[in-house]
Specification:
By secondary structure, this protein is mostly helical. It has a domain of 146 residues: AhpD-like, CATH 1.20.1290. It has eleven helices and no strands. It is globular and about 55 Å long. It comes from Chelativorans intermedius. It holds the Pfam family CMD. This is Carboxymuconolactone decarboxylase family protein.
Length: 209
């Protein structure tokens, strides 16, 4: 349960109910992360708009790798599990993804992937430490200045969402218990999964935020 009292049923306003309805249609259940926004559904709308604008200019796989790198540095289990599930569904096997998360030499990642993830990690850890050499390094891997901006945007945006969920005490949904145990352990970098039995595997693999 979140640390704050979330609004449901008759206590929720019209916008919150609309947000709940969209989430249930998308995920098949009401995720804990959505409940946190019950007091301010307009903030969730703004977050979705920001994500759409960032993702519209990025390759989906790159966006997800950047997000995983940022979420790991932020120790956000929720975002690691959500975006890890997406990568598992469309891009990696469980063994490959576990290697990616654990910084092992994973053949499915090329030098550009690694450079992008390292840059995203640095954005989250200490953006003031980034120098012109870091930007030049990404350029040497073929990224344009627009693409470098997109990577930085995705990493910086993740700071808002991950930190907000953890500050409110939102636990990852029980659906994520269905992830293969070894991989699940690697993705659990912060808060533990909720134990409420309210979701299923298919729902956990919906497109994450």
């Amino acid at each position: 349960m979140p640390f704050i009292q979330t609004l449901t049923g008759k206590n929720a306003g019209e916008k919150a109910v609309e947000m709940f309805t969209r989430a249930i249609r998308e995920f098949g259940y009401l995720p804990n992360m959505v409940k946190v926004f019950s007091h301010r559904p307009e903030v969730m709308d703004a977050w979705d708009g920001l994500l759409d604008s960032i993702k519209s200019n990025m390759d989906v796989r790159r966006y997800e790798l950047v997000t995983i790198a940022a979420a790991k540095q932020l120790r956000s289990s929720y975002c690691m599990l959500a975006h890890g599930s997406f990568l598992l569904r469309d891009h990696f096997t469980a063994q490959e993804l576990q290697a990616v998360v654990e910084d092992a030499e994973e053949p499915s990642l090329d030098a550009t992937d690694r450079a992008v993830m390292q840059f995203a990690t640095k954005v989250v850890r200490d953006a003031t430490s980034i120098s012109a050499d870091d930007i030049e390094g990404l350029r040497s891997h073929g990224l344009s200045d627009q693409e470098i901006f997109d990577v930085a945007s995705a990493a910086a945006a993740r700071c808002f969402f991950s930190k907000l969920l953890d500050a409110m005490g939102a636990q990852p949904d029980s659906a994520y218990n269905e992830i293969e145990p070894g991989l699940r352990k690697s993705l659990l970098v912060g808060r533990q999964i909720a134990n409420d039995g309210s979701a299923d595997q298919e729902a956990a693999q919906s497109e994450p935020r």
